[in-house]
Fold these 2 entries.
Entry 1:
Amino acid sequence: MDVTQQPTAGHTAVLLPGTGSDDHFVRAVFERPLATIGVRLVAPCPKPGPGLLTAHLAALDEAAADGPVLVGGISLGAHLAAEWAVRNPDRCAGLLLALPGWTGAPGEAPAAVAATHGAADVRARGVEAALETAVAGVAPWLAEELTRAWTGYGAALADSMLAAARHAAPTAEELARLDVAAGVATCLDDPVHPTEVARRWAGALPRAALATTRLDIVGADREALGRAAVLGLLRARSGQTSRPD
């Protein structure tokens, strides 16, 4: 099957944001790439606080109440979607997994360490001061994304970040049980979400394909990350599994 075909037409994709991120970014990344293959995007709004992860998982349950859905997300969102799919294999129609941050326990994974330090700074100095430090020296597009999302989380930002940083991602053994097509996307220049983690996920998943982009490209075109994940999904559905871009 050619990757230009639309094997997912008619499906809904429910995609979750990363730590300290929001549904606005999810839509900017995925909405149009999914529309090109006939898939409707649902991007649940985060419910900040210590119950953030539970609320995200409940959103997946609600979306799949009437039948299987594609699930996935970015960073933490990818972790939670894969976790949900392990528990609900009959309700998962496929996976779109962008920028996974770790496998199994977070340990000293860069994304977990960054979230832990960020939470401590927010608690010590408040969101505004912590945000000023977080955006210092980063690319303007990333500063814009962080400013909007962190401000939206408000006083619940620290609890949200800690909940994410302490939560285990699926293990390689759990990923190996997910016998659905999966697109895994990575940015080759992202030190917080190492490409090696994405490769490990793509290798563990039985029917996955890896596609790559770069943060400097995403900065100019948010949809580049979504296109990479969708391309991975289409390749996986066509049997081109575990194949780096």
Entry 2:
Amino acid sequence: MVEALRGLGYNTQTALSDIIDNSVAAGASEVRIEFVWAQTESRITCLDNGAGMSAAGLDLAMRLGERNPLEERATSDLGRFGLGLKTASFSQCRRLTVATIGVDGMQALRWDLDYLANSSDGGWHLLEGAHPGSEGYVEPLSDAGRGTLVLWEELDRIVTPGSTVQDFLNLADKVEQHLGMVFHRYLEGTRPRLRILLNGQPVKPWDPFMTDHPGKPYNPPVFKHPTLKGIEAECHVLPHKDMLSGEDFEVLGGPEGWTAQQGFYVYRNERLLVAGSWLGLGTGRSWTKDEAHRLARIRLDIPNSADADWKIDIRKSTARPPVYLRDWLTRLAEATRGRARRAFAHRGRPTLLGNKQVAEAWKVERLASGIRYRIDSDHPAIRDVLDDAGGLLPQIRAMLRVIEETVPVQRIWIDTAENRDTPCTGFEKTPSSEVNEVLMVMYRSMIEKKGYSASSAREQLRTTEPFHAFPSLVDALPDNF
């Protein structure tokens, strides 16, 4: 049975998250994780400064399924099945030792899967104390004088044939990223509720929503469910790459990257359960993760009393919304996805400046036969040419129609998917001198041929694509040529 429990699907990141859940439940304000490389004798320890356990409490904690998941729990409890400590540990190692200092002083118990496998009577032998020769590994707990230490030895799922110290360190980096994401709401602030150190270095929180960033095009107030207590959502559309520094763009991409990190972030007691998923929602068929919606992220908080309804699994890494919430969540997601799509398409730049609509060169026609992209003949640059075309007007209209009918939509879609970004448009990465040349042609025409004053011409250009992205160049246009 224990060997079967090792296959529940944990990885090292999710397993250590489960261990830290117990530390949080014990009131710990600090957790120290150590990855110690010693080839086949490598080990991982997790030491907290929580309340510790009594001898009876430790014995109960080391039992498999020591509690009924249907029992009512404290609202702050992060556990459910009474299996996390054991199954998370067994998924990574063959020897688990838990030492604690509580009202009965220092206590230590261990599970040794090799001992169980070789036992002649087939009994469940829970052993006392650390493994002979490993007593020194629990000394940091004695030095601390309080808390609980979890020791993993015989790391057969981590240190495999051919593993190197660099592989071990790379895994530690992945763990650091994951813990910074899962517990970011505990780690944030000038006085965080929790401090996690990995090999002596503080784990930094990763905020999936870039809270308070001025470049976010959408971040409304929190939506509370109208009838269900404790369920609330906060919708975010993140800044486009063009609105971020290179460092911020890399950081905000998260452990799995921009496209993979879109969707709902489900929290229970502010502990992250699901990091980016559309939860099987959708209109018609389930939404998939795509480039167009990668700026959409929705924070969703649920109480631990809803675990059964949400089908929270033992690993606390999957959740499925109950039927009674699907319509509410779908409406929130549709609004957020729509705004994210527009922000992505417009590269994070507004389509409204003040109370004026930006004049765009392309428009979308939605017909029964499908979507078509048309050049907007009312765009100032297009209208200027059409008005002065004279006898060339039919040829120019034919040329525009050919351009409309040959837009390389599929090629653009493939290039966007492969490059993980929209192609360069809007004079992106173009020298200001080149932009100014085009700008001056339009500006001169508006004044000399259309009768605009210099100030009204500049005002028009400030809301004309793509010059609305270059307000300083527009403002620098001269009153006189």
